[in-house]
């Protein structure tokens, strides 16, 4: 830095070089750059690099749905006031997620883009109703559209494709399949094996205000618990009336056809209802307003 000092001749100045030492040593910053509060192009590109054929157990989902304006009830949201207008769900994403975690989130959102007319979009200044996706405490989501800011907690142990799909289904307006009002014709709850304090997750709920959209009970729904979910002793908490299904239910790692039909009927996704649903595309669908953020040369080569 250059300063000027008055010389002995009061009418002239001489330049003096002053070196400011900001610290006693030069240090390197290894801080991770702050990631944007929404997914960007590179997150969706990275999603295509994830290995998708590795079978992973779904995270335990007890207590993962929260209800606000309404009592617990039903199967799939039917009241228009509880739906997201035009299937558009604005979101804000915490900067705490790593690039790999963002890629898994992007893969999950790509599945909704490909198979439904639901669109998770970055929140704008004019959006009053929106979700905040962050690492709070485990895996849970507010049910349907609450109004204003609502929470989706996806902690580190929840960042797995099928778990994210499941939690986003709560946001869309789905409750657990085994809580349908007609569930007694298909499953039995073994209350003696349920963890103390978890009974609310196994209650049968009234169908008032919701609908099954003419879809039968689905043992394989992404919204169905496994047979030992919430067990305090390792024994089943849910058994199928048709015994062959007991060890199969709740094992899905993606939407079933029944799940998709109900989403698309609830939100009137007519064009999608006319076609069969392909697997998640190898080239993920990128939101129209995504931005480039990462350097392609630094693209991670992930294996899971």
TrEMBL record:
**Which residues are annotated as active site?**
167
Q: Which positions in this protein are listed as binding Zn(2+)? A: 166, 170, 176
Q: Name one GO molecular function term.
A: zinc ion binding
Q: How is the cofactor bound?
A: Binds 1 zinc ion per subunit.
Q: Where is the signal peptide?
A: 1-31
Mind telling me which Gene3D superfamilies this protein's record contains?
Answer: Collagenase (Catalytic Domain)
Which SMART domains does this entry report, sorted A to Z?
ZnMc
Q: What is its EC number?
A: 3.4.24.-
This protein's name: Metalloendopeptidase
């Amino acid at each position: 830095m250059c300063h000027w000092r008055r010389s002995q001749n009061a009418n002239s100045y001489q330049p003096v070089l002053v070196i400011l030492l900001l610290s006693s040593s030069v240090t390197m910053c290894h801080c991770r750059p702050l990631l944007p509060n929404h997914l960007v192009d590179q997150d969706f590109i990275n999603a295509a690099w994830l290995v998708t054929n590795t079978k992973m157990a779904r995270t335990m989902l007890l207590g993962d749905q929260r209800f606000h304006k309404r009592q617990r009830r039903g199967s799939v949201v039917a009241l228009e006031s509880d739906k997201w207008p035009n299937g558009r769900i604005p979101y804000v994403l915490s900067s705490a997620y790593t690039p790999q975690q963002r890629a898994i989130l992007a893969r999950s959102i790509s599945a909704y883009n490909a198979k439904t007319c639901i669109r998770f979009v970055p929140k704008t200044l004019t959006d009053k109703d929106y979700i905040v996706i962050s690492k709070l405490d485990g895996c849970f989501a507010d049910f349907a559209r609450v109004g204003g800011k609502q929470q989706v907690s996806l902690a580190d142990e929840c960042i797995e494709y099928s778990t994210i799909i499941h939690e986003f289904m709560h946001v869309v307006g789905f409750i657990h399949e085994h809580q349908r009002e007609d569930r007694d014709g298909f499953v039995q709850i073994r209350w003696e094996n349920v963890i103390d304090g978890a009974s609310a997750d196994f209650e049968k709920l009234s169908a008032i205000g919701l609908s099954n959209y003419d879809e039968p009970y689905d043992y394989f729904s992404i919204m169905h618990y496994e047979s030992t979910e919430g067990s305090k002793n390792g024994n089943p908490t849910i058994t199928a009336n048709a015994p062959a299904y007991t060890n199969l239910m709740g094992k899905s790692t993606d939407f079933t056809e029944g799940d998709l039909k109900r989403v698309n009927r609830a939100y009137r996704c007519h064009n999608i209802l006319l076609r069969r649903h392909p697997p998640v595309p190898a080239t993920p669908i990128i939101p129209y307003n995504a931005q480039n953020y990462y350097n392609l040369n630094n693209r991670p080569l992930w294996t899971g």
